[in-house]
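May I ask you for just one protein sequence along with its backbone structure tokens in two labelled lines?

_____
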Amino acid sequence: MKIDEGSRGTVTRRDLLVSGGAVLGSIAGGMAVSGQALGQQSAGTQTWTGSAFGSGLLNGKVAVITGAARGIGRAIAVDMAANGADVVGIDICAKILQEQSYPVTTKEDLDETGRLVKEHGRKFMGMVGDVRDLGSLRSTADKVQQQFGHIDIVVANAATQHFKPLVEMEDWQFNGVIENNLIGTANTIRAFAPKMIQQGKGGRIIVLSSMQGKHGSKNMSSYSASKWGIIGLMKSAALELGKYKITVNALIPGLVDTPLTQNEARWSALIGEVNGTENPPKNPTEQQAYETRAPHMPLRVAWLKPEDLAPAAVFLASDQAAMVTGACYDVTGGDDANNLS
């Protein structure tokens, strides 16, 4: 939800997040007025510049974020910068799978994230890297520690997906998603958590799962399996790293307006899911998809904006979340009301 530029009398979710003690309740309450109507901002023109919560929750922190070139990763990066953190943004800036139904991230995308971070007076280190390459991530961890002196926050966000019935998938189509999403998330923890342990000052690790990590998803078995796995990985890491005062939590997005989801293949699948049809339109418009899904959502918002996720990430990265670990934080526009947990 955008701030009313003409009047500060308009209360937004972010206006509610003004004190550490009220952060969690504010996120819960503020999400009731969140979400944006169709057409206000497309995935291809992401312009969110970040917003401070008013108390510098992350002053002096260094945050490492994978998948930072755009989408949720960029939104989290700029909000963490707005709240005082320096940012290290990692992105592959290339095709992840042999075939992708969405545009490939570029170095220019990552540079734009850096520009937005620097607008808040914070430092930015952009690194082109593949989360499937553990050696590369460990080398990046060394460089970050050398340049910044410490690593306080890690956000494992890099992800991909592929649409195809399970029994028709080739190995690369199934394994590639698992390797990037699940193993890549594990690699990120394995590369950066040792630095936090050595520092002896605790830390925050946030992994990105999905609502599809809490229920199945037709023709997206590899994605759903990877996101289920991330929840188990998070809970296991929380048990292991708690003695070092390192918290590990999962952010659970609903459907979010990013290039990963805003394409004809995903819109078609969405319409098929909602209408229960085997033959949804093959080339639907964004308008068709939005109008099909919105009436079935508690907040009547078909999909969220990336910046709707960022406040929860900032809270989980802050000192106020010191007693939160092993938890899933759902930011879904109400989609999780359909689940048992």
In short: Residues 163 and 220 are 5 Å apart (CA to CA).
